[in-house]
């Protein structure tokens, strides 16, 4: 992927903190888009509000930076009104799963033909580190000063259950796998959901003994377990570690989809 | 050849939209507006358009805005509770200058209120309901014919000024059935495309920028953040914010006399009724029943931006009387623009003012 082809150089410097994982996820996504042969003229990036949702503002395509939580509803209008456009949505865990939760499940159910890349940093980054529906139990945030007590949403599982045609989860450490997953999502007609666990050293790491960026990336790398491995352990009757987050491809199917270009 | 039909107000609204080339409808069922969505659900798929029932009204207006960026004429229809939910994204449509049409078939509020009864209680909400300073356009039909004509016209205004335009109807007009003349075709004035190589958010002479439709190679960034003329976020520069908001307001307000759509009867009268929507009908009845009483009538088909100049055209006026199905929302606006006495005639509960009630007011004149 060539930088000049996709990024608005006149928008630099960007707002992301040093060591933020969002840049990696954006690069992986653009790499996958380019692999598809899509161009700046036929691709539209759409987002809600949050650090993650600022991504479209740095990309040269037509883009819609919308309101908090509503990106998928806007994207539904764009895609249904002009199915020739390739629509990719950037969102965060707060944007997608808290305020935007209803739009998320309904976009999955409609199986509308677009790809969502969710940068799940397990925190509200932009507003300075409040708890999100994905903040791990026990983690410290400004609104969970004694440790998060509420159970966490498994976004990928939610997408599978709600009807998405393609669902995968990786982390910002797994650059190659993540890129491939995004590409698989772009290729699949219908709703594709790619969850990328990312590091937010500023609002998450700092308060959770993961001060260094490398600590956070290492944390992501060691917190996950491959779906294939879970499968093998189950087959062998071994206990699957409950504290690990499954990564890999969860579903790839061909339910009837909306908004697919005929 | 135009044709004569007998039609419900909500159906006429939907047909007016289709005649104007509406290609996208996103909505959520709510009494007393639902017939519009149902009619669009039947008709749009047969006219190369898209109907989608969204998960709520927040999503409905969002989808409409998204569709509009692909160049489609797009609309939604709702009533009080749904209208309240739309407010944040209406502000988004304002700041991103997205043409779209929002129909509000008003019912009694606050809250769930009176689902099946008419009202005009959202007239200030449509003007001021989203946060921040802005200006928009609101039309107010008082007959089934006007449901058709004004809905069609709303699309032209939305495209010309690049604003969300409101058709502020009500249960009475929406559910009324009357004779209507369907014209052969309606006038269509589409949005002006952005000239390539020019800045996407620089206002032209009229303050309105050309439209950079998605997928046409403009590479436009659209954001609800305060932005510069390139469309790039610039949320801390006081001058950029002030200039943007002033342009958003003045592109509408400076054209308000051009936008105005009204009917004036007896401009020499001393007592003048000012109406919009259903009370217009009652005033017409009173004037019909009691001709020669020296009563004037200003019937506004467009309420916002408020055409205050029209009040001064009643040069002999001594009193303005404003009957409304609310507690005096537009009477307050009339008061703002005249030193003459303004009599507000509020009516709540869903029933129309009767000719007798208004006639009594006239008889009480000194
Ligand atoms: C309606 C509304 N409520 C609240 C906010 C404030 N707000 C801005 S960003 C944000 C959270 C973003 O978190 P997330 O989606 O996880 O994105 P991140 O910044 O972590 O990438 C909130 C609550 C808003 N902009 N709009
Ligand atoms: S606050 Fe967190 S998510 Fe936001 S830019 Fe900084 S590191 Fe990235």
Give a quick precis of the structure.
The complex is a heterodimer of chains A (262) and B (366). With 262 residues, chain A is of the alpha/beta class. Chain A has helices spanning 3-6, 22-35, 71-81, 93-99, 101-110, 155-162, 175-187, 213-223, 227-235; strands at 43-47, 62-65, 86-92, 115-120, 166-171, 192-197, 224-226, 245-252.
Described by its quaternary structure, the protein is: heterodimer
CATH class of chain A: Alpha Beta
> Strand-and-helix sequence of chain A, N→C?
HHEEHEHHEHEHEHEHE
Beta-strand share of residues of chain A: 15-25%
CATH superfamily of chain A: Thiamin diphosphate (ThDP)-binding fold, Pyr/PP domains
Number of helices of chain B: 13
Strand content of chain B: 15-25%
Average pLDDT value of chain A?
A: 97
What does this structure look like?
The complex is a heterodimer of chains A (262) and B (366). Chain A is α/β, with parallel strands linked by helices. Chain A has one domain: Thiamin diphosphate (ThDP)-binding fold, Pyr/PP domains (Rossmann fold). Chain A has helices at residues 3-6, 22-35, 71-81, 93-99, 101-110, 155-162, 175-187, 213-223, 227-235, and strands at 43-47, 62-65, 86-92, 115-120, 166-171, 192-197, 224-226, 245-252. In chain A, helix 7 links the parallel strand 5 and strand 6 (192-197). Chain A starts with a helix and ends in a 10-residue tail after the last strand. Chain B has 13 helices and 16 strands. Chain B has helices at residues 9-19, 34-43, 57-69, 80-96, 125-128, 144-161, 171-175, 238-253, 256-259, 279-289, 309-312, 329-336, 355-363, and strands spanning 3-8, 22-27, 50-53, 73-78, 100-108, 114-118, 137-139, 164-170, 177-182, 221-223, 262-265, 271-275, 295-300, 302-304, 319-324, 342-346. In chain B, strands 2, 3, 4, 5, 6, 7, 8 and 14 form an eight-stranded mixed beta sheet that branches. In chain B, strands 11-13-12-15-16 form a five-stranded mixed beta sheet, sandwiched between helices. The longest helix of chain B has 18 residues, at 144-161. The relative contact order of chain B is 0.13. Strand 2 of chain A pairs parallel with strand 10 of chain B. The complex binds thiamine diphosphate and iron/sulfur cluster.
